[in-house]
Amino acid sequence: MRGRSPQAAQQADSRIRLSLPPLAQPQRTRAPTSLRPRLIASPPCGPATARGGTGAISIMRGSSRWSRFVKHILLIDDDPTIRDLLSDYLSQHAFRVTAISDSRPLARIVGTDAVDLVVVDLNLGHEDGLEIVRRLSSTSDAPIIIISGDRLDEADKVVGLELGATDYVTKPFAIREFLARVRASLRERPAPKRRRERKTYRFGRFELDIDMRRLVDGDGVNIKLSAGEFKLLTVFLKAPQHVLSREQLLTETRSHNDDVFDRSIDVLILRLRRKLEVDPARPKLIRTERGAGYVLTSDVTVSDAARLRT
Predict the structure, then answer these.
(1) Given Cys at both, which of 66, 176, 226, 260 links 62, Cβ 3.0 to 4.6 Å?
(2) Band of the pLDDT at 69, cuts 50, 70, 90?
(3) What is the DSSP string of 231-298?
(4) Of 153, 99, 160, nearest to 128 (Cα)?
(5) Confidence band, pLDDT 50/70/90 cuts, at residue 261
(6) Could you read off the pLDDT of 101-141 as tens digits, one per residue?
(7) Coil, strand or helix: which one is 174?
């Protein structure tokens, strides 16, 4: 076959390139409008709607659907310049700020909206900021930062901190330092200890502390119980003077991995009688009802006491 001339090859190559479709160019997509940050002002809580009025102005960044993930700061200062400056700066750093000039709308705000931090000025014209600190610290777990421009004595700082404030900042202050103090106050603190009910059952001459799993007699002597005996006794104490069948006792005392059989209930009953009865051969406290089951014959009283969960 004859070879093609260079001119013919170049023309053929040009025709091939022209016939190929153009390469697809990557398209840039914009995030949905709802996901882009924007500044939102919620309706005022008080009669005034402008900055510097007596009403509360709440400002936050981001869509309202994300507001529950944003820390809420309550700012109380009667100086509109300071109030506006701190509100704007904190909102620019992903905080939601409610700014008020005095404590009149305080109860309504705290009662309807969760507050994560309170910033309060000590001198609010006709009222004392220390009284607000005292009131808030007794009703809320939110940390409190005091700001003050003229009460700089050590005594004022000590009183404010002892009333429940977590920090005391004197004016003038650097805005970045103030932001650092806000973030430090909002850091996760140890969860408050929860309270649980501590039940004590009294029956006959015995007392059973459920929380401590301790059984004592009338002389204060501690009676040791196995796990099975403890479970069985608590079942009886929850249903005194009621006949309980072996099946009921078996169901109530069996744990997830226990391998408990029908006759093992009889063994546990026997062990309990040896520890509770004056004469285990003639039981009076835990009596057998033939063909039916067992019954705790004693009256039972229950007392509850709040106990801190550690």
Answers:
(1) 66
(2) low
(3) HHHHHHHHSTTS-B-HHHHHHHH--TT----HHHHHHHHHHHHHHH-SSTTS-SSEEEETTTEEEE-S
(4) 160
(5) very low
(6) 998 898 888 888 889 999 999 888 788 888 899 888 877 88
(7) coil
Among 125, 124, 145, residue whose Cα is nearest residue 133: 145
Which DSSP symbol is given to 122?
S
The Cα angle at residue 298 between residues 292 and 299, in degrees rounded to 5: 120
Burial of 64 (0-12, 13-18, 19+ CB in 10 A): exposed
Provide the total of helices (H) and of strands (E) in the chain, helices listed first: 9, 14
Instruction: For 157-174, give one letter per residue: b (16+ CB within 10 A) or e.
Output: bebbeebbbbbbbeeeee
Give CA–CA dist 143/137, Å, rounded. Answer: 8
- Token representation of residue 240: 């005194």
**What is the amino acid identity at position 26?**
P
CA gap 102, 77 in Å, rounded:
7
**How high is the pLDDT of residue 72?**
94
Tokens 């709802």 correspond to what residue?
A: 34
pTM of the model: 0.45
Q: Are 163 and 135 contacting, i.e. CB atoms less than 8 angstroms apart?
A: no
SS3 state of residue 130: helix
| 283-294 pLDDT per residue, tens | 999 999 988 899
pLDDT of residue 188: 60
Q: Which residue has the tokens 């996760």?
A: 188
- Kind of pairing between the strands at 300-308 and 195-203: antiparallel
Helix (H, G, I), strand (E, B) or coil at 61: strand
Cis peptide before 172 (omega within 30 of 0): yes
pLDDT band for position 217 (cuts 50, 70, 90): very high
Q: Across residues 57-76, what is the average pLDDT? A: 65
Minimal CA–CA distance to 91: which of 79, 77, 75? Answer: 75
